[in-house]
Each structure stands twice: as C-alpha cells, then as structure tokens.
Predict the structure.
Amino acid sequence: MSLGPYCPPTNAVSAAKASLGGNMIRLLLLVLVTAAGFGCEATMTSTDKELFFQAVREGDIQTVQSMLGRAPSLVHISNERGLTPLMVAVSSMERKPQVVQILVQAGADVNAQTDDRITALHMMVDVDGPTETGDVPSQLARVLVHAGANVEQRNRWGHTPLMSAVVGGTHHELQALINVGANVNNLFPSRTYPTFNSGRTTLMAAVGDPTKVKLLLQAGASVSATDAHGQTALEYARQCLTEANEECSDAHETEPDRCDEAKTRILAELEDMGCDPDAPINEAGLTARRVLDACSQESLDAVSDFDYVSQLRQSIHLIEEAMRCGSRENKGDSHRK
C-alpha cells in the first residue's frame, strides 16, 4: 500500500534549500502562533496544516511537539485524502514511533477510518522503506493497540490489519500484529481483493510465502479449518501447486515462441520504416537485432528463475509438519487420559 510518501529533492543543492526553507518557515510559524495566541489556540490556516503534515511525515519530533503545544486540535485534522496525522505518521517512509506516541498522547483517534474503512493499524502495513522491517512495526503496533486500536477492524475489502499484512505486508509487520493478539484464523469475505482469496482462510492467503506460513502456524493458525469452499489449507496448497506446475510448463513451452514472434514483428516494423536492424546504433557497434536478442533472453531467464513452485512446496511441507505435530499431541493427550 504505497500512500504517496514524501519524495526527497533530487540533488544536494535543492535538498539544502528545502531543508533551510522548511525550517525557517516552521520557525516563523511558531513565532507567529506564539505572538498571536497569548496562551490561546490560534486559528489554523491551510499552511499550518500543510506544515504539520510535513513534520509528521518527515518524523520531525520537535516541530510536531511545538505545533501541537500551540494548536492541539491539529491532531484531529485530515488531509485532502481523508488521512489523519496519525495515519500519515504510521505510513510514512520516515515513520518514527516517537511521533506516533506524541500524537496518541495528544488525543489522536486510533480507530479513525477513511472512506474505505482503513485505520492506522491497516496503514502501518506495506510501507516501503527501511522501517518496514526491524523493530519499528512492532513498536507502532504496540503503541496503537495499547491506546485502544481495534486489531480486528475490517476495511472495505474485509481485511483486518493482520490479513492485510498477509496479503501485502512484510514478515516483520505480520509478526508485529501477531504479537498484539490479532486473530490468525479469520476468513476472507466472498467479495474481497485480490479475488483469489475469496472465502479463504488467513493461512491459505499466506500459501506461497513459507515464512508467513510458519509465523501463522506458530501463532496457532488452524490446519484443519475449512474455507468457504470446503477446502483445508493443505488441500488448497496442493491445488495451487498443481496449477503452478501446469502454468510453469506452459510458460516454458510457449515463452520462446512468444519471444520469437515478438522479435520477428519488431524487426519487420523496423525494416518497413527503412531502418537496418543490423546497422550499428552506437560507437560500440550495438545493433537493434542484438538488443532484441538480449531482451528475449532476459525474458526467458526470468521464466527459468521462477521459484513460486518451490515456495509452494515449502509451504506444503510446513503445513504437513504442523498436522503431524498436532496428530502426535492428540495421541499423547489420549494416552494420558
């Protein structure tokens, strides 16, 4: 879920100008608020809001604290996309748990929703950048849940935050939600996205990613539960493997033909335009034909390196092992009785 994170300036000069300019504007704003307010909250302008969202997005702790000190209601505003400062704070590439904590302590609604019923817990999932791994996801989840965030809130597509993490989040984000007690045995609704998860269990949605499968199993995901189609996770995983093997076989058989057809068509179009595909196009003697050959080979290599089948087999192995362990435990309980 990429949510339009802050894009840094493209060179060192513009970066320096942006940094100096931003800091000067923020300083002037704080001075004006202080002078005009005399202990009362000043009337907010669109510039105030923009600066506050920028500070939140960039993880500028000092500015966030200062602006909230003079205008506490900033914590309740929303931007043109309907996002609250808390939502922006947890989904920014430069997100910091300290900023999230400040917003929560200032009274941010941890269960506020967008029009798609997405909450801050949903938005802490699938964030590009260095904070999508490591300790940050767990710190964010703990702060939000401790403040009363509903870990089982469903969005427009019927996803809880954990289900969103299974579908598109990192392993660390999934573990973070498991750690705060999220249910690992929910069913996806009949109308959901992606559509192939319709009616499936959360464990089924992880099939193909062995690490996520393992995390869910360790957290108590049921291997015996059936989905809306009457399948268990093992049956579904085996079905996926069969389909993947067929698709891979077809891909290996048809991809060379597709590449050859595309090359022939492009070369014909070049000749129709009066271009010689064997004429050098640079000083190194590279030709259009050689470029096409290289592109075709790259496409074929991508098919050869396709490892989804391997990921499915590992997922199946983990589910089978969990079933064996469950069977042994049941036998042990029976003997003790």
About this structure: Residues 263 and 293 are 8 Å apart (CA to CA). Residues 233-272 form the longest helix (40 residues). The two ends are 50 Å apart (CA to CA). The chain is about 60% helix and 0% strand.
